[in-house]
Amino acid sequence: MKLDIGAHLHEDELEQYSMGTLPGDRVGPFEEHFMVCETCQDHLLEMEAYVNAVRSVSPTLRQATPWHWKALRSWPSWVGLAASIAAIFLIGRLWLAAAVPGPPVAVFLQATRGIEGLSIATAAAGRPLSLQIDPIEILTSLSYRLEIVNSSGNSVSDGRAISQNGRIVQTLPKGLSAGKYYVRLYSAAGELLREYGLQIR
Fold it and tell me: Residue 117: pLDDT above 90?
């Protein structure tokens, strides 16, 4: 005759029994089932073997852990805060450096005649520029108009240039993007006086 031992014990109950935390009203029915159920006995033995194995390996793992991991775990939480503040400070410095491009770079434009064609001045892209022209052999005036066109002939800048310290000067605070440009100097009356080449890299 085979005994009716009921349903197998839950894993939670096995764990609580193993740790001595199973509620008192459940201990009696648990032990009755446990005494006749080989499956639950095997399960409890496997569970206790696993727990004992973890307990025995744990000190070994702690000793084998590299010193730098131990040091990182022992650092207080304020180290993370300090690292965050340092990162914010660095990003702020980089943003300010990008937002304030610095003083304009002087670019001297020269016109040449003959088979050489235009003399090409060069400058860096995205930097503020101070375009400067020596007014030798140019009709003297208090102001001029300076137009900048790209290689397709489209105007990218058109504004007033002034005489300053013996030169004709126009400042481009935002600079120009990379490409080839032609700078055209006009008199105040609109007469084309000179054309200069400008390469932005």
Answer: no
Q: Tell whether 112 and 185 lie within a shared domain.
A: yes
Q: For 24-28, 41-45, 64-68, 194-198, which range has the lowest pLDDT when averaged over its residues?
A: 64-68
Structural domain contains residue 46: yes
Rounded distance between C-alpha atoms, residue 138 and residue 57, angstroms: 91
Name the pLDDT band for 178 (thresholds 50, 70, 90).
very high
* Mean pLDDT, rounded, for 102-123: 75
Does residue 89 fall inside a structural domain?
no
The Cα 181–Cα 156 span in angstroms is 9
143 class by beta-carbon count within 10 Å (0-12 exposed, 13-18 middle, 19+ buried): exposed
CB count within 10 Å of CB 130 equals: 18
91 domain residue, yes or no: no
Q: Compute the distance between CA of residue 114 and CA of residue 170 in angstroms, rounded to an integer.
A: 27
Does any domain span residue 116?
yes
| Domain interval for residue 24 | 11-64
CATH number for 153: 2.60.40.10
Judge if 118 and 184 occupy the same domain. Answer: yes
How confident is the model over 45-96, as pLDDT tens digits? 887 777 777 777 656 555 555 555 555 555 555 566 677 787 787 777 766 6
Q: In what order do the strands lie in the sheet with 129-133?
A: 105-109, 129-133, 167-172, 155-164, 143-150, 179-186, 192-200, 120-123
